[in-house]
Amino acid sequence: MILRFWPIVLICLSATFSVAAPPPVSFNSLSSSDGLPQNTARALLQDSAGFIWIGTEDGLVRFDGYELRSFRKRHGNQLTLSDNYVSALAEDLQGRIWAGTMGGGLNAIIPETASVIRIGGDLGSADIMVIVADSNGEELWLGTDSGLYRLGVVGSAGGEIATSLRKVKLPLPDGSALNSSVTGIVLTGTEVWFCTREKGLGRYRREDGAVTWYLPGNLGLHDDTFNMMMLDQQGNLWAGGQNKGLVRVLRDADTVSFKHYSTSNSGLGSNDVMAIADGADGRLWIGTWNGGLSLFDTVAETMDFYRNHRGDPYSLASDIIMEIIRGSDGKIWVGTFDSGLIWFDPDPPFRTYRATPGEPGGGSREPHLDLCVRGEQWTLGCLQ
User: Can you give the pTM of this predicted structure?
Assistant: First the structure.
């Protein structure tokens, strides 16, 4: 099936033709009406070949920019996904795609053959929240509904993948074992940072297994439930809180502290931060639950916003953001809860704004005027 996408342009103009914040972007979208199996794009990945993988609540999709290829569970067929609710995605150094599910554990997809291998054992019915491939190429770190796991991947032969699984011991401050959801993982050399539901943030030291916990009231932390963690290109560690907004983990050689950005002190669209992507320019793209998309300048500590406006086809398609990634070409890809996939170029070099033929106030097939912008230079021209 060949898909064609028509961009939606979002722009604010004043009477003097000056550019207003937020910067104008042109949104493209992909939803169930275009062949997506379901409109909740919960997990996103761009693989090393450039394909975009979309985990939905009704299957996994590979998108090449034109066509969709679906991977779904087929009852009675062990060579298909273990479950259609795809919640986490990662690629390892061998190019294998790992798909975690809710209630169905883990799957490996071999892109060359499009074959699916189910990883059984203790993960067979697990909820997989997050998958991170270790840089050693031999291990995956898995955040599940029952804690943190390390999956050693020995290799593959005869259509099978040899794995070894062990649970990481994470004793809580009271001495009991962590048995709740790990929702985010960041590998930083000898340490593994992770976030949880209702147990705060943690830091695990690989060399000796020591665990340090950070709970509300501890060093300025205000939340105990987090949706995700990420490390930006400047080495800054961030966590998306479910109740208190965006958290920056301030680290130096000896100390750790926390800084919060919320609806009350930064204008964040919502305090439920679902996703963060590095813009590679000192800015972060932040997706929230019911607060739309924010563009955060980490130096100036200012935010611009993209929101859905009912009845406005040029606005963001949904205010409920599930996932964000930045593609290798700089495009931003956004998974939403109810409107499928959105993608856009955050800084297109040349943009054209024109009335749309056939719409009220729109243009026609006659010669018409176009308003063009390159950077902050505006040009009004007559085009055939």
Answer: 0.85
